[in-house]
Amino acid sequence: MRKRTPYLIFWPQYFDKNRTINQGRRLPKNLAIEKVTLDDIEKAVKALGYEYKIENTSRYPKTWWDNPGRILIDSKGKKKRKILFEIAKQIRKIKS
Fold it and tell me: pTM of this prediction?
């Protein structure tokens, strides 16, 4: 089995404004983004200076029929929620 620490997994579903919390959204609606892609997340993570890996073939368990992939981010000891909010704010900056 692959060791993931210190990597945290982030799925595009976490940021999607059109999903409910039960469908995987992890942000409040005012910070969530419409039609977020793995490329958007990658640009934001790169701008924030995190080390990351992309896994295009992975499927989010709640929506296994959808294939958006996921991104593994080196947390550098930060909490996942804090990184999630940083990425969301950075995606908003990039898209506007």
Answer: 0.86
